[in-house]
Amino acid sequence: xxxxxxxxxxxxxxxxxxxxxxxxxxxxxxxxxxxxxxxxxxxxxxxxxxxxxxxxxxxxxxxxxxxxxxxxxxxxxxxxxxxxxxxxxxxxxxxxxxxxxxxxxxxxxxxxxxxxxxxxxxxxxxxxxxxxxxxxxxxxxxxxxxxxxxxxxxxxxxxxxxxxxxxxxxxxxxxxxxxxxxxxxxxxxxxxxxxxxxxxxxxxxxxxxxxxxxxxxxxxxx
Length: 222
Known about the structure:
Order of helices and strands: EHEEHEHHHHHH
Strand content: 5-15%
Helix content: 40-55%
């Protein structure tokens, strides 16, 4: 008999879709473009990773966007689904809701390996689920960059994106050395429209999440 890890805190079970309630506090949002890419991925490959459901509250802990895409593909909410079941308090549920979707806890891309992976099997950025903007940042100046040459928006943003990419790498290196993050700050916008307006005023693509401080300082004359 195989020994189960003592850290595994879930069981697999099949439940009716109607038993799964979306957490009304869920802070995750998704753009229409990303929603279409997610739906396309599920339609082609199917659901290959279970959603996480809290038996105690009936709330979905992780997988809100995938579940919405499944509903769209099924054209109903009348189906059964195998889920990873946990049984925790609502407070722990909220913590897990964020941690399971927190990009800063999920590592970074090794761009050389990512490019090699895609090039070796002739996989396009679109097949990997990246938008044109993602691909411009991740693959700018590499083998996959040629796939984006016909996109005028990507071409126009090349120099800025290259600078941002370099700044991000330098920032990560400094952060690892200093074990701190005093050299950056976060701006929280009230709406997506407000974010886009601010980035447009700063001359930054509206899908960008990382902005080069040196570049902004030059534009602002500081």
